[in-house]
Amino acid sequence: MTIDMFSLKDYVVIITGAGGAIGGATAHVLAEAGAKVVISDLNLEAAQKNADEITKATGQETLAIKTNVTDEAQLQELVDATINKFGKITALINNVGWGESTPLWGVSTDYMVKSYVLNTVSSYNLTKLCMPYLKKEENASVTFSGSLVGTTPSPEFISYSNAKAALVNMSRSMAAMSGPDVRVNTIIIGSVDNGAATLEAGYDEAMLKRLSDSFVMKRRGNPKDIAYAFNYLISPAASWVTGIELLVNGGGIYKSKMPTGDDE
Ligand SMILES: NC(=O)c1ccc[n+]([C@@H]2O[C@H](COP(=O)([O-])OP(=O)(O)OC[C@H]3O[C@@H](n4cnc5c(N)ncnc54)[C@H](O)[C@@H]3O)[C@@H](O)[C@H]2O)c1
After folding, report:
1. Closest residue (by CA) to atom 2 of ligand 1?
2. In angstroms, what is the C-alpha Rg of the chain?
3. What is the pLDDT along the chain (264 residues), one digit of tens a residue?
């Protein structure tokens, strides 16, 4: 049945940053689709809360674990804890990421490097550790949380956008070398409402309104819009999909600027 092609029954999925908006919604959706999810976050309290809610709502076993993704020893602990609890890893979602608005010429070397380590290098390290386990599983995959700012000029997010741009090429390189055993893809995420985190990143209400209005769909995304895309990319339905960037962005960048007579 077609619906079974989207099922994640018997899948074990590690999701980083799963105490947050997109990672949390993704953990919830994947558990509903049948997966056992490992909810990893720097913020253990948020991770545990999501894990408890998911188990209560879906009956699925979950594992909440504190991980600072920039610490390689903690990444190894995450992999070991997953294997100890569930015995395998079918999919990895490298979702941690963070960036704030900075002046184009106001970023230090340290800041640039920190951003790169958090957004890109950490997921390289975790993918490397998971790869031997992923290779043993059918339809195994790695998926990254990319960003629209990593694919368009984004001078106001210079360090974050550089790091997210690098993520795309890293994902393609991994895909080229990991097939046919492991599929590797990136979701290019448009502006998603993640509550306070958006404002912390330097947006104000007026910017958010302009952003929403600029999208073809006339709204920012909600975390589940992205979670469903992760579900697809991990599922058997996507077993021939690797090395791609899947844009989930409300159609923002596709609106033609050409005069058509239909414009307001
Ligand atoms: N929300 C958006 O508009 C948007 C747009 C494009 C891309 N993204 C990307 O989507 C991903 C998720 O974003 P979100 O909106 O859910 O953000 P969020 O802030 O809600 O969640 C991020 C989570 O990562 C955790 N985290 C931060 N540093 C960490 C570290 N060192 N180790 C482990 N965990 C850490 C935080 O505790 C938080 O729970 C990120 O990669 C982000 O760059 C988001």
Report:
1. 192
2. 18
3. 999 999 999 999 999 999 999 999 999 999 999 999 999 999 999 999 999 999 999 999 999 999 999 999 999 999 999 999 999 999 999 999 999 889 999 999 999 999 999 999 999 999 999 999 999 999 999 999 999 999 988 998 999 999 999 999 999 999 999 999 999 999 999 999 988 767 766 678 888 888 888 888 999 999 999 999 999 999 999 999 999 999 999 987 655 555 655 554
With contact defined as beta carbons under 8 Å apart, do 211 and 151 qualify?
Answer: no
Ligand 1: centre distance to CA 25 (Å): 12
CA distance 50 to 261: 48
CATH code of the domain containing 156 = 3.40.50.720
51 DSSP 8-state letter: H
Flag whether 32 is in a domain. Answer: yes
Q: Is 184 in the pocket of ligand 1 (CB under 6 A)?
A: no
